[in-house]
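User: what does the whole thing look like in 3D?
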Amino acid sequence: MIKNIGSNTQLKKISSIIAYRAFSKATSVDNRFKCSLVQKYAARREYASKQPPKLTSETYSYVKRDEKYKKLTEQDIEHFRAILGKKGSLITDEVPSDLDFYNEDWMRKYKGQSKLVLKPTTTEQVSQIIKYCSEQNLAVCPQGGNTGLVGGSIPVFDEIILSVANLNKIRSFDDVSGILKCDAGVILENADNYIKDNGNYIFPLDLGAKGSCHVGGVVATNAGGLRLLRYGSLHGSVLGLEVVLPNGEILDSMHSLRKDNTGYDLKQLFIGSEGTIGIITGVSILCPPRPNAFHVSFLGVESYEMVQKVFQKAKNELGEILSAFEFMDKKSLQLTKSHISSPEPLEDEYPFYVLIETSGSNAEHDSAKLETFLSSAFEEELVLDGTVSSNESEAKNLWSWREMIPESSAAGGGVYKYDVSLPLKDLYSLVDAVNEKLEAAGLSSITDESKPVISAIGYGHVGDGNLHLNVAVRTYTKDVENCLEPFVYEFVSGKKGSVSAEHGLGFQKKNYIGYSKSDQEIKMIKQLKNIYDPKGILNPYKYV
Amino acid sequence: MIKNIGSNTQLKKISSIIAYRAFSKATSVDNRFKCSLVQKYAARREYASKQPPKLTSETYSYVKRDEKYKKLTEQDIEHFRAILGKKGSLITDEVPSDLDFYNEDWMRKYKGQSKLVLKPTTTEQVSQIIKYCSEQNLAVCPQGGNTGLVGGSIPVFDEIILSVANLNKIRSFDDVSGILKCDAGVILENADNYIKDNGNYIFPLDLGAKGSCHVGGVVATNAGGLRLLRYGSLHGSVLGLEVVLPNGEILDSMHSLRKDNTGYDLKQLFIGSEGTIGIITGVSILCPPRPNAFHVSFLGVESYEMVQKVFQKAKNELGEILSAFEFMDKKSLQLTKSHISSPEPLEDEYPFYVLIETSGSNAEHDSAKLETFLSSAFEEELVLDGTVSSNESEAKNLWSWREMIPESSAAGGGVYKYDVSLPLKDLYSLVDAVNEKLEAAGLSSITDESKPVISAIGYGHVGDGNLHLNVAVRTYTKDVENCLEPFVYEFVSGKKGSVSAEHGLGFQKKNYIGYSKSDQEIKMIKQLKNIYDPKGILNPYKYV
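Assistant: Here's the predicted 3D structure for the full assembly of 1088 residues, as structure tokens:
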């Protein structure tokens, strides 16, 4: 049972309740994460339609197969078989359903028509495959764990799928420097467990899909995830990459140096390139020491302005131990209520809620810092009510109120999802603007079931400037879509935000890059694509 | 007076001595840094020869002016005068000595022959200047604070010097997100002071030259500096750049988003590009909250193996508050003794010394963590002796033993300096190998003054894998140089290290990149240079 520490009149209780509540062993914390993530993953599978997805080429009939790409022949397959050698590394359409996992995305929103999946076991094999594809003009869709959300990891037409799933070895781990070198196909959770067991380190990135996604995939998509606030972006922590270029050449940049100022930092181009200019086959990454203690608190806040003030205060006072700062609005919590059996974190309702996680090397110190911070936040009336986890299961419960929002917002019939970055001060104004627009158009009502839209809700990673805008609907209509788009993108563009904070461009957002990048930037991005992949064989129909 | 907490028999003393010794106000800490840096800067000027440097073209007579570049005419100068308008933004050779500051490097090792310095006040002016230079084939040397150590910021021949010193405005600072936007020519220390005074933030990089170097310059050279261990590299913290490309186009990528996955991360190419593919005119950077408390400890250690163990332990136990981990060998300290008036940190001599700095949000907590860490390091016999600063002046004294090494190692007559990155386990073996080689060649002796070499010493940023190898000599000889080179570079190359950890390539290391990068990487680096600067007008004769 979570105790309620809040309300302004109960300030003195805080210290006694908070004191030393950390669940302090890394192993149990991991279980907590694992549980909630497995739950999340399962939820996603449930959330997706049970119907097989329609072919992408049918849903988006304006996209046509580029006839410059050769169609696969038996000779090609024989050539690949000779490269790969052993059985099981090559999947054809002999049993068509064998291909479904590779042709369909996680959300079952997209479906490709590939007739061939290749699963090389060495970088050399990847190189030989790509060299042949380049010579033969065969289009290739590189694939990691296939957990992407923008249709980037599945083919659009008949591209050959090159899965790195069998490139799955830890190459080395230095327990003094914390530098991990591994194949691209190592599952994120396996990498994290390995470095936990071999020196008590932590992978500097965590994701809902950690049990399925690959290390190479998170680098190729520059995934953000749950630890970005604390450990920064992959552009800072990746030290080296091994990449097979679109002509089949292997770029061996598997460096393991924190400092190296000898030439342009080539690897940076491949971080977030979504398989369009090279296939990442190896990753060298700097991992930080694993924190020993985690605390989670859940707070009620009066306004978005106050959310920002709490964030600023948390950064200053919790400083080096602040590891997550998430917010959600009242409607997010209201929608979640009907889909969650856990006790509510707070007795009363508040316009906004904040979830703060700290992680550090000393549970007592962290607890004391949190106590001081919360006491003064109450005193300054930045926070109206709050609770702090006293054990693992309470922490998990608090996190679940944040993690269940995506499913809950879809449960009324459907959801339009936007993943945007905005300057902090403008972050929530998008949600207000969308609700106003929907109401003005007479499309939205929480109670009137004849209206297509229930409400727009906002939540996300305030710490990273990343808003998830979900428009919960009873039914999908063209009117709603026209009301939302391009309005949302124009709004984000007007505030110099990003239309894709963490999910990437893939197939879904290929045409929206202009809302976040200038013509000049797009010209330079296309220039790089043309230089590295002049034949355009890598991941076509996507990105730019 | 610094108290000695060490020796194995005095373990119980530690706790009473360490308890709450932090000098806890940010302002006083800043003064400490400022003092030691001013000292360092002054020292550099003293260290450099009082003689004006020889022309680079004389010292390195094999480098010839490329006749594809047009020679400056009066018409060109008139054109630039028209662009810049106001007086004082353009320096010609009317009074030749006015050009010296811009033509000579900090160490007075290189000297260019430029007849014109341009100091635009707007990005638009930079754009117009570069557009004209591109059309006219006029070579340009971009210059920031001119504090580089590899001859990268001064011309080799008659290149026009484009100084960004007058682009010196803070554009904006968001005290909620910590995002600073400023012109490239803002002095690093001014930027740091500004964000300290406007929200208690800290610039995520610190340097000896902070009072002179520019924000744009540190980004263009991907400077590492004193805070890298804590705040990571600029590739992680720079959020956006404004760059004038070699054809004069302005690339406006002044984004202020922590997360933005819409296309290749173009700005990364310019971080560390040393002015060869564009001139950085604006920087957007994420700044962390300023720590409130700093502690410094100085420890005696038995072997380099133990240094590594102490580092590993410090990372795990000091975790989020560890902000510097420096090491030095016995000879480094011996050389320093004769050049420093401060009391010695430890009574006895040890084979290796470690300086640990912590910085955090709570002085008591940090002190307690340090105490626990040191007690157990003594118990486990990882550390033989040690001392902890109890106030600002003691901390400054401890730092001075590390900071005075560069000067001290040169005081015997001269010094060959190498700034390399190596895998941690191999870091010190380079020093041993060099000393063995020098001794075997009969070139080295600490006592015999007829030998050219005194000794090779090793010190540096263990936390970053960055070794400073200084070969202290009585006199420079060709024999010593031939004994050291290419041996040092080959050694570093053999361990997959970097021949330039933080100083960059510039003019000095242009020809050594092959020791750190493969042919494939060099090919790709040259390809990028040719794409962005096909006429080669930006910073010629350098980098690649």
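In plain terms: Residues 412-505+512-532 of chain A form a domain with the Alpha-Beta Plaits fold (CATH 3.30.70.2740). Chain A has a mean pLDDT of 89.
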